[in-house]
Design goal:
The structure holds two protein chains of two kinds. Chain A is mostly beta strands. Chain A has one helix at about 170-175; strands spanning about 10-15, 20-25, 55, 60-65, 80, 90-95, 95-105, 115-120, 125-130, 140-150, 155-160, 180-185. The longest helix of chain A is centred in the last third of the chain and has 5 residues, at about 170-175. Chain B is built from one helix and eight strands; from the N terminus they run βββββαβββ. Chain B has one helix at about 65-70; strands at about 5-10, 15-20, 25-35, 40-50, 60-65, 75-85, 85-90, 95-100. In chain B, strands 1, 2, 3, 4, 5, 6, 7 and 8 form an eight-stranded mixed β-sheet that branches. The longest helix of chain B is centred in the middle third of the chain and has 4 residues, at about 65-70. The chains are: A mainly beta, B mainly beta. Strand 1 of chain A pairs parallel with strand 2 of chain B.
Chain lengths: ~190, ~110
Amino acid sequence: MSEINVISRTQQIIIDPVSRVVSVVNNPGKSSVPTTGIPVVSGLVHRGTVATSVSTNPNGINVLLDPTTGQVQKMGIDVEIVNTGATTYQMRVKQTGLYHVYGNIRAPGTAVSPGSLMGIRVNGLAVMRDTFDSVPYASAAVGGPLYLTRDDLLSLYAYTTGATFSLDPVAQTAIDPPSPILSAWRMSTVQLVA
Amino acid sequence: MTSKVIVHKNRTNVITVSMGIDVSADTITSEIRSEPDIESPLIATWDVSYKTNGSDGELILTLDDLETSQIRANSGYMDLKRIVNGEPFSVFDMALEVSFRGSVTA
């Protein structure tokens, strides 16, 4: 018996605000998949907890996580967390396949300049992005399916058009799920276990 | 990760563009030509509009089905022209490839 696959394709041309690199992305947009409750299929995922600190610089916002506490949102058996103690939050793909990736930054009670945005890069190219919601509860999230190959590098980034962007690390620890989050699950092979 | 821009013939096509900068005071135009050259034959012209007012850098490109039904080519190239204070600026480093696909249902 034959099977008909219906593909709902949308396309978006994304220009990275920092590097100005242009990407044509298929099926972009916010994900409806929550940060917990990923459909169970098989495999194993370790779920971390809290990202504890962030900082800003004039050219954008570098997300800092605290690797000493283990309070890092890390997911995915087929990706490895790299460079968590430095100025960016990155993951490297260990196995080629179709992934669901998700990024989220929230700044409760924070004023964010209009046009400030965040997103996910793959090997330096912006493939998903979102602008922050209006004040006072600034938040932004992106997610969706991506076909990734071994050694692709995922990174979470944020960018502000003004000087008013500030993420309060104390407030970050008080929300559930915590933020910032960068996660990736290889589809059909993972299971949320903790 | 970058793909070709897909345009379906005989259909209305809509693509969003995230410029990442405020373009509310700018004029944006976009054309598809057979080669990445301004002298090559014009295939189609995108209708460019703001998603809101352009301050968020979000654009919507639309090709009406009346226009795509006239397309005979199978491929082409497109870019964006951003006019600021009368000066035309490039948006892309190089033209994007466009693939035209046929439709079946009349």
